[in-house]
């Protein structure tokens, strides 16, 4: 059984490789200085929690350790941990000679709150397997041998044969959290990763279509050279170099002709490329050695000979050997070969553009496996770790949060879940053919192209509440414009799908969002129950002094917001307080009214000042004694508009129920209504109905606050604010 040495899995953007040496030297001494980060495991897979197994292994202060997923306790790896009987395949009793392996896994169902606190640690892997734990062998914390023997599926006698597993790679150090999903060794199941940090930091990576669809896409599109990567028996996809065809079979020299042509061409002239912060390099082949010199200071980086097929694909051997600057050059050239980014048609001495993604994977031979995982309809924003140097020019799934708060691993990826925004671009009007998510900012046509979006690709948009998108017909953000706010917009019908040259994503001053009380991320001491409040569902109850709930929010712009709480209480002098930063920041408090009973509902509200960004807030209490159904967050300008609009004629002849509402509004006195209009909080009309019946279907409307403008047949008017859930 192969002993897999443990190493740091930090991935550094190619333009920051100048920092690699300092990072490596400081990493082990600094991991303990970093804040503990809670990693929550969200199960979006076809496997029950009891059939999902989790382990955490890594390095702390030069010692190989494992973290107990149930308790968070850090333990030194020891041979004494090998107490679990594993399968014996072809007589393989494992390194211990007794068929026993490390007792380091826990079922997801056994992990409190499905959350593991990750301390400062280097070279960490969160290993996730299905229907069985993996069988790792621990050698010890230090000395030789040390670390653990990991699954080696190239070994037919490995005890992990037939066990599906995935992992998240991470290092949590003083310079931040570095984490990523990975396809470097192969693909077994979709995965997702989200990280939140101070200052509004948020990044999400991973796959967003089901396992079966990924396999179907592979089988229907893989060229013959790569078809053998698919393992039909285990329904997994292997990295090419892990297959017989690329090791010693028909594809064993797959990159040979391209490598030969590169080494031949640059014997008679220089290959020049710009590596960003790492400088501009110029290199020439002498004998079999490719030697590069940095223009700014004369630093030297070399590739000692032509790399083999395996070395190109895996970034190993001569593509991972030598000093700091050797590895800078090797990473660049290895990535360029996999992507076929070195243009042999250009004259020697001309600076090559190795950074433009639209040029990648266009000319054979290239690593089609990598191209597949960068498809925009598989991986969020086309980001993934498809080979070891995918971080060159920032195409990897690395998430680096300098001041992390928490992280979520989504087992099974995001299939069936709503894409996070603020803006999602789709390639058809059924909101399918996902292209990319856009954050706030301006995007020229060339920038959109670099993200894989052509102007005629944008057929529809989904915009998160609190944001708006302005489309322009000129690349300098000019010409006729179209503004899309928090609603689905099919651009084909507006003839914008083939004429957009630039766009801007920005916050919308009108913002409102509803948060159900039972949708907390974390809590202490509370429980849920069925509610009799309008709209049904559940409320949070059994709230006592000291209890709290935590909620994830995304505030588009810093400012003043009104919080409206839907509450019930038979008590007087009860209070609720709003917190941030785990209670370190007090945002405000409000007195809960005595509504007359635990299911007699009323409202309480206050205004608070919030920063922009995605973060958690807490609802806490020093008194308890009330129930909470939901709360609404509304920007003050929007709240003021809504309040003003309701100061019109009130009557008891025409009324709308329920409020809040999910799917249908019931109109009492509809025979008295001439017209009824529904407007979103920004004043945009979304529905107009003449002589309505006694019900109106509104299931298609996005959640939020709406104004219902009613004109009666006698000429009087009435505005009613509703909350669509």
TrEMBL record:
Domain CBM6: 513-634
Ranges for domain GH64: 34-413
InterPro entries noted in UniProt: Beta/gamma_crystallin, CBM6, Cellulose-bd_IV, G_crystallin-like, Galactose-bd-like_sf, Glyco_hydro_64, Glyco_hydro_64_fam, Glyco_hydro_64_N_2
Signal peptide: 1-33
All residue ranges annotated as the Beta/gamma crystallin 'Greek key' domain in the record: 421-465, 467-507
UniProt-listed PANTHER family: GLUCANASE B (PTHR38165:SF1), PTHR38165
The protein, known as: Carbohydrate-binding protein
Species of the source: Chitinophaga pinensis
């Amino acid at each position: 059984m192969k002993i897999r040495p443990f190493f740091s899995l930090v991935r550094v953007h190619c333009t920051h490789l100048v920092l690699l040496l300092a990072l490596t030297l400081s990493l082990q001494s600094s991991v303990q200085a970093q804040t503990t980060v809670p990693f929550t495991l969200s199960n979006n897979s076809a496997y029950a929690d009891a059939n999902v197994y989790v382990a955490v292994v890594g390095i702390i202060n030069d010692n190989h350790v494992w973290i107990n997923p149930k308790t968070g306790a850090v333990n030194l790896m020891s041979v004494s941990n090998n107490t679990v009987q594993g399968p014996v395949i072809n007589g393989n009793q494992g390194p211990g000679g007794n068929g026993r392996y490390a007792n380091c896994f826990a079922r997801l169902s056994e992990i409190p709150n499905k959350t593991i606190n990750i301390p400062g640690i280097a070279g960490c892997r969160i290993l996730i397997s299905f229907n069985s734990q993996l069988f790792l062998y621990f050698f010890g914390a230090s000395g030789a041998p040390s670390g653990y023997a990991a699954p080696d599926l190239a070994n037919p006698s490995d005890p992990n044969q037939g066990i599906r597993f995935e992992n998240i790679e991470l290092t949590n150090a003083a310079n931040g959290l570095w984490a990523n999903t990975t396809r470097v060794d192969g693909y077994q199941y979709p995965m997702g990763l989200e990280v939140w940090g101070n200052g509004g930091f948020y990044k999400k990576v991973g796959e967003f279509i089901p396992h079966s669809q990924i396999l179907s896409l592979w089988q229907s599109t893989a060229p013959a050279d790569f078809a053998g990567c698919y393992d039909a028996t285990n329904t997994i996809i292997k990295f090419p170099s892990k297959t017989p065809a690329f090791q010693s079979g028909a594809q064993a020299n797959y990159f040979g002709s391209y490598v030969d042509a590169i080494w031949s061409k640059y014997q008679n002239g220089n290959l020049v490329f710009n590596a960003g912060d790492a400088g501009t390099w110029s290199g020439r082949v002498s004998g079999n050695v490719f030697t590069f010199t940095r223009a700014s200071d004369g630093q030297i980086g070399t590739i000692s000979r032509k790399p083999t097929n395996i070395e190109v694909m895996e970034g190993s051997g001569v593509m991972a050997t030598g000093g700091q600057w050797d590895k800078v050059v090797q990473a660049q050239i290895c990535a360029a070969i996999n992507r076929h980014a070195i243009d042999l048609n250009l004259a020697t001495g001309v600076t090559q553009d190795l950074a433009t993604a639209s040029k990648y994977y266009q000319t054979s031979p290239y690593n089609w496996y990598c191209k597949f995982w960068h498809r925009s309809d598989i991986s969020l924003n086309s980001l993934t770790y498809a080979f070891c140097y995918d971080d060159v020019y920032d195409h990897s799934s690395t998430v680096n949060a300098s001041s992390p708060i928490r992280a979520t691993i989504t087992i099974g990826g995001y299939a069936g879940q709503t894409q996070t925004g603020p803006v999602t671009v789709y390639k058809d009007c059924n909101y399918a053919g996902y292209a990319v998510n856009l954050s706030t900012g301006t995007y020229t046509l060339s920038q959109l192209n670099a993200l894989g979006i052509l102007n005629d690709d944008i057929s529809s948009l989904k915009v998160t509440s609190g944001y708006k998108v302005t489309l322009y017909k000129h690349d300098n953000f000019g010409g006729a414009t179209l503004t899309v706010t928090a609603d689905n917009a099919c651009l084909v019908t507006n003839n914008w799908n083939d004429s957009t040259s630039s766009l801007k994503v920005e916050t919308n001053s009108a913002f409102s969002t509803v948060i159900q009380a039972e949708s907390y991320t974390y809590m202490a001491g509370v429980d849920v129950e069925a509610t009799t409040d309008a709209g049904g569902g559940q409320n949070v109850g059994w709230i006592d002094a000291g209890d709290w709930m935590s909620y994830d929010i995304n505030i588009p712009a810093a400012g003043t917001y009104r919080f409206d709480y839907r509450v019930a209480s038979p008590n007087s002098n009860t209070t609720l307080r709003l917190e941030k930063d785990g209670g370190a920041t007090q945002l405000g408090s409000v007195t809960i009214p005595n509504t007359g009973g635990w299911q007699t509902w009323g409202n309480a509200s206050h205004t608070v000042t919030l920063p922009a960004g995605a973060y958690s807030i807490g609802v806490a209490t020093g008194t308890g004694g009330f129930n909470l159904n939901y709360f609404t967050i509304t920007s003050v300008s929007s709240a003021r508009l809504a309040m003003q609009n309701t100061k019109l004629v009130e009557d008891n002849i025409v009324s709308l129920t329920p409020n809040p509402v999910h799917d249908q509004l019931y109109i009492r006195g509809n025979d008295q209504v001439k017209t009824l209009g529904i407007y979103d909080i920004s004043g945009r009309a979304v529905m107009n109905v003449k002589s309505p019946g006694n019900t109106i279907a509104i299931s298609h409307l996005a959640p939020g606050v709406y104004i219902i403008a009613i004109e009666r047949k006698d000429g009087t008017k009435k505005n009613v604010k509703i909350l669509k859930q």
